[in-house]
Amino acid sequence: MVDQTQSERIKVSLFLPNQLSRESRTKIAHFLRDAGSKHIQVSENEGEFNCYSDQVLLMNSELPDVFSVDAAFLPLLVKNGLIAPIKEDLNQLIPNYQPFQFALTSCTIQSELYGIPNLIQTNVVLQKESPSEFASVLDLAQHKGYDSLVYPDVASSDALHIVTNYASLALQGRTNMISRSVFPEKPEHADEHFVTSYRTILNATQIEGAEDLVESCRYGKCIPCGAYIGRLEHMCGLKCKIEDEKWNLTLLPLLGKGATKITPTVSCIVLNSQLQGQRKQEALNYIQQFFSDTHVDEILQRGLVIPCDRNRLNLWASNSNIYRDVLFCLEKHERESNFSVLQFDPEMTNVEIQRVAKILRHRLHHLAVATLRCLTVDMVENAKSGHPGCPIGLSPVAYVLWKYFYRSTCKNPAWFNRDRFVLSNGHGCALQYALLHLTGYESMPMEELKRLRKIDSKTPGHPEWRHTEGIEATTGPLGQGVCNSVGMALAEAHLAARFNKEDLKLFNHYVFTFCSDGDMMEGMCNEGMSFAGHQSLNKLIMFYDDNKITIDGSTTLAFTQDTATVVRGFGWHVIEVVDADSNLLGVKNAIKAAQLVTQKPSLIICKTSIGYATKHEGSAKAHGSALGIDSVNYLKQLCGFGTQKTFFIPDQVQKDFNQIATRNAQLYEQWNTLAQEYSQKYPTEWETIMRMSRQELDGDIEPLLPTFEKEEQEGKELATRMTSHMVLNSIIRVMPGLVGGSADLTPSNLTDIEGGLDFQPQQRHGRYIRFGVREHGMVAISNGILYHGLLRSYVGTFLNFASYALGAIRLSALAHIPNIYVLTHDSIGLGEDGPTHQPIEVLPVLRAIPDLVVIRPADGRETSGAYLFAAKSTATPTCLILTRQNVPQIRNTDIHKTLKGAYVLESTQDPDIILVATGSEVQIIVKAAKILRDEHGLQVNTVSMPSWELFEVQPREYKDQIFIQGIPVLSVEASSPQGWIGRFSHFALGMTTFGASGAYQDIYKKVGITPENTVDKALKLISKFKKSAPPLLHSSVLE
């Protein structure tokens, strides 16, 4: 068809295959006209433009402006500069066309789009007895509905016919093409069963890209013969390329002249069930030897099939060295082992077939999967410690995820809209490090893989954020990464709601997470997944490595719950993939299905075998130690790798990952273009985003900090949880990225934002998060929000319940993320709730965590100082320790001096004693000092010490000004005295017992934390030391 109506109009040529009947050609022409293409005329003279001839394409001096062509010609046309890439948005070019479907068509070369699937051209499905009669997609579409039947072309526009292969349809129990007997004679005879069958086959045989067409048998695809592809000797050099490389030397004549009676089948080698004893063992040995001595392993690795009968094998062997070798081996060994080639029947339940299938399945792996497995076991073996089982089992899942879905680039690891990947089962980190190396992270050279678990390496025993580029979260303690992922998905949903525009979507990424049986057992995992289900975080896709093994042994020892049912109860979409150690297609389809879910997070349960294809497969021995050289070599042999090579990456595998990296870099550049447009159209929002990314405040915070002078003048007492509420609501206006909430204690913690909105499924822009009674999950989710990189987060609970969340608090310090912990009800001062809720040991525990700053303010001004530090901190989490009971505003407290950790409230030139306290006990030492001065004539310095950690980093000169050498120091704190004596005081008045239930004033008296008892202890200390008290360390380390 050629449009030549006006010179200004583009020249369009849409070629219709000459196999079509005139009736079919006319039908297509009418279809085109009905669709609105009024200027396209039908030309019966095919000589005007033959899009099936490479000679015509290359010799034609004036190609049409727009023309249809077989996709197999795209590399040729691109190489010769005859076609240009298409830059337009596919969603606008083809409405309702999903990008991941398009990526699987044959229209891209090196991630560049050069064509659009010819949705209107006839796609021949199956040749009938008469070569002139075809049933077409278009015919069926006009009867069944266009949307339900039309697909992107498979490999080329109409000539590559559909065949099955073992790696796809055999695993689904579909081993043949659509039978000619059930193919509809007329379009109107097509029923739903046929439509479904056609959809299944078509989806299973898509080829990944035109450039990879000539290498498709290396990557698990058969190239069937089309009606013309074998006749054109020079078409893109395809046939010559295959012959030169000695692959499958001929394009298999499954269809076409002289081959119409050959029906493609899927076959495998099986044992005769009558074999017993020694002969049976000899047969099994033969199979292993067979794969070692021939090219059959290459055939199986590439997804090709062995024909099921001798006649067909003879036919293929006449044109193929590979099949000739197969035939030779069969003839050589058949008499020795009573071995036959039988047709595979998926409904057979013969145990021997299943046993042999287990041997064969190792050969069906993609070469990249085998590379990941062998590379990771080499890393663990070289380190002589580590966890090989998880990386071996999850390599197929990781490869499919990276190959087709995961978007992140080493060009900018901090790209806002990258997908996030979290390895919650962090012991499997060798797999993540291998992926970082393969995708081009300069900080992860091969030398670092060889330094796994070595001191100062970039490959520590569990992933560490900021330590290793490309790691999104510090994980290892099971369950943490699951909740971190929930926080990241929450951050994406919030940012998308706040900043995405109808025309420009800045945030639309996914969060992918690997987790294990151990994760699923952890309580915090259930907390996080329950929360995610309630929040409908559909951009969260989690992969559960269901290998049924823990350190102790089988999960049947302690974990027999129906996890799928449990997680569905949380509100998740659950997909199960059997044989996930080898079923790459099943994993791929599961991810596709998960991305279509819009109202729920998704859990993909991957049924794997720990230590797959090793001598320890299915055993706890594969979990946490090196496999040993024998087992490593066994794996390499099954993967087709030589046992002498270590840390080996085949060139074609590295090329494959290079293409993944190139694709993602291009996606990043496309997003950059979008971001530039966004910054010009929405400059205010863009500036806010940039400030958030730099963790900058949106203005000067200090003028906003309450000074509480009025409250002091009026003698008004306020609990520091209340002053915290006042400060938080004052500073949030300059912290646009601040979100947070409480573990169902909002009225007690006073963490709410006045006039603010809750974050809920229908209110994603809300900044207040109702975490529910999930302390550990809450903190880990908050960590995930911070890992995401743009938002700041705070969370609230009682100080005593910080013990529930200690694992996540500890990891925030290890990861250097500036979480803000609002921990109220900090002592026996909470009163009537009693000792179950009164923290004694928690403060010393928090102070013992490195890189965690604990601040216990005495009043409102010190609370402002605490928030000033927390708001400006970019790499240190902060615990704000706050009272339930009211406390006075103390004279001389200071916002900025709070940042020094300790400072003198009342001083004398020659003190007899120094009284130091934190939080609510500062008022006690102030009263005690007055008694000592007024009634005993002593000189007393009082010191408020809100933060040990901030004080420890001060210069020695400043420390000596606060704690004067030789002067005895008495500390007072309603907590365990652990850590005070010898470091900051010579005697500590504190809690050495649990508290009690009653009015807090009575409890203070009962345990002796009063001004009077402070005076008594001070007098004894003065009597003991005079002014010759031993020096204090002033630090947890020797200087």
Automatic annotation (TrEMBL):
Residues bound to Mg(2+): D517, N547, I549
| PROSITE patterns, alphabetized | TRANSKETOLASE_1, TRANSKETOLASE_2
Q: What are the binding positions for thiamine diphosphate in this chain?
A: H427, G476, P477, L478, G518, N547, H623, F801
Q: Which domain of life is it from?
A: Eukaryota
| One cellular component term from this protein's GO annotations in UniProt | cytosol
Note whether Magnesium occurs among the keywords.
yes
Q: What class of enzyme is it?
A: transferase
The record places the active site at E775
So what EC number does this one have? 2.2.1.1
What does the entry list as the binding residues for substrate? H387, H623, R721, S748, H825, D833, H837, R884
Q: Where is the Transketolase-like pyrimidine-binding domain?
A: 718-889
Quaternary structure and partners: Homodimer.
Q: Which family does it belong to?
A: Belongs to the transketolase family.
- Protein name (database record): transketolase
